[in-house]
Description:
Layout: H1 2-22, H2 27-46, H3 50-70, H4 75-94, H5 98-118, H6 123-142, H7 146-166, H8 171-190, H9 194-214, H10 219-238, H11 242-262, H12 267-287, H13 290-293
Amino acid sequence: RVEEAEKSYGQARAAAEKLAADYPTVPDYHRSLAGQYSNFAVLLRTSGRAREAQELNEKALQLRKQLTGEFAARPAYRQDLGDSYRNLGESLRQAGRLRESEEALREGLRVSTKLVADLPNVPEHHCDVGNSHHNLSLVLQDAGCLPEAQEACREALSIREKLAGDFPAMIEYRYNLAASYNQLARVLAATAKSGEAEASYRHALAINEKLVAELPEVLSYKSLLAVTLGNLAGLLAERADLKEAHRLAEQAIAYQQAALASNPAQPDWKRFLRNHQVNLAQILEKLGEFAEAEK
């Protein structure tokens, strides 16, 4: 499937490049080309090809900077620019270039915050600000800046709670909210706030379980549910609540395997599954079930 998608994106990219070259004065053709670069970059990033994704994100960013400079009055162009900074920031984070990642994400936050100030009644712009804060929390935690990571995560959570409450039919907003609760729990656990971390994980689980029940065909919902179950299992194991940790770790493996069964090439999901399996083995060892842990 990845090969087919890559071929399709390549064809769409070639067509967009030709249109932009043939009609250099039509801005929407350049916008479309930047969109093709950005979409292709997402595929490459989720396939574990962060360097190639970064190169395409940089191409998209340059085009969008030019468009925004020439057509500053068009909000859609500014929104695209914010997206490009966030996409580049994520690619840089995956490549371990944390300082550059943070810089790109903060620039994306600046662009999206200005859009919210100019157009406060457009929920998508608020969503973009929440996404910027969430991604900043990830990179700040990777850099060991835990107080700053928690602050960014709480900013994202505040925005996402309001969006999910105001627009309950928007599944994306509920998924984002679950992701923020999971991230906040990770940061709290890293700062030895175990009780608060558990409560945040359980908020994430409640939301994600409903999403999986409503839309079982959406693999990313199953994967996030698996990750949250695995994280909570690890937290409970540290507190010696081993029976509950065991139950959750087995559920995490089941959901992660279900997601991978339909998309076996997803590198992050394969890594998550290995983490769940190691987690379960460690829990079993603590329970004294050495033979089962060695399987």
